[in-house]
Design a protein that fits this description.
Chain A is mostly beta strands and 112 residues long. Chain A has strands spanning 4-5, 10-14, 19-25, 32-38, 45-51, 56-59, 62-67, 72-77, 86-93, 101-102, 106-111. Chain B is an all-beta fold and 112 residues long. Chain B has strands at residues 4-7, 10-13, 19-25, 31-38, 42-49, 56-57, 64-68, 74-78, 87-94, 102-103, 107-111. Classes of the chains: A mainly beta (112), B mainly beta (112). At the A-B interface, strand 4, strand 5, strand 9 and strand 10 of A face strand 4, strand 5 and strand 10 of B.
């Protein structure tokens, strides 16, 4: 079963506007969540993370929101830039575990 | 600091051939991972090594073997390649599991 799900395979936004990428999870034992960004022909790179004791974490233009009751997290990018065009993966882990579980990814395209 | 390096970058195999994908990290990380990425499937964990001397199966281990040669190196072996193993393979490492992972650039494998 898919424990981490990104329901939107793709998202297109205009430069300067907000990009919102969504992720849902089913495992209530997950307590640490991350977003990775991937450009073509490169490995994923870490973007931002959040612990389950928080509901928001901000780093520059990137903010991650966590809604534990809905088992939902989202990544907001404001303002979006063409260089943000990439595949974004959300991932989750249990603090007692040894591995990350990734979603399917969302292709973000930011149009100039 | 090279981070995580993978060799080869690209490989074509015939069905039934064997090969080993190499991965090395220079960050003195304890944990290392092998993933495969397929369209619409995200990153799926094949095997991981939480610390030197240990290896464990991930989500999709069938058809693969691994060796944690030392703290730096973690190799993935396909004993008898199948077309279903055509994929992009990523190696990753983290200081401790399951914290933020750092990925290599990937190996594109085509099995004919």
């Amino acid at each position: 079963d898919q424990q981490v799900k990104q329901n939107s395979p793709s998202l297109s936004v205009q430069e300067g506007r907000i990009s919102i990428l969504n992720c849902d999870y089913t495992n209530s034992m997950f307590d640490y969540f991350l977003w990775y960004k991937k450009y073509p022909a490169e490995g994923p790179t870490f973007l931002i993370s959040i612990s389950s004791i928080k509901d928001k974490n901000e780093d520059g233009r990137f903010t991650v929101f966590l809604n534990k009751s809905a088992k939902h997290l989202s990544l907001h990018i404001v303002p979006s830039q063409p260089g943000d065009s990439a595949v974004y993966f959300c991932a989750a882990s249990e603090s007692s575990g040894s591995r990350l579980t990734f979603g399917e990814g969302t292709q973000l395209t930011v149009n100039p | 600091n090279a981070g995580v390096t993978q060799t080869p970058k690209f490989q074509v195999l015939k069905t039934g051939q064997s090969m080993t994908l190499q991965c090395a990290q220079d960050m003195n990380h304890n944990s290392m991972y092998w993933y495969r990425q397929d369209p619409g499937m995200g990153l799926r964990l094949i095997y991981y090594s939480a610390s030197e001397g240990t290896t464990d199966k991930g989500e999709v281990p069938n058809g693969y073997n691994v060796s944690r040669l030392n703290k730096r190196e973690f190799s993935l072996r396909l004993e008898s390649a199948a077309p279903s193993q055509t994929s992009v393979y990523f190696c990753a490492s983290s200081e401790v599991a399951p914290e933020t992972q750092y990925f290599g650039p990937g190996t594109r494998l085509l099995v004919l």
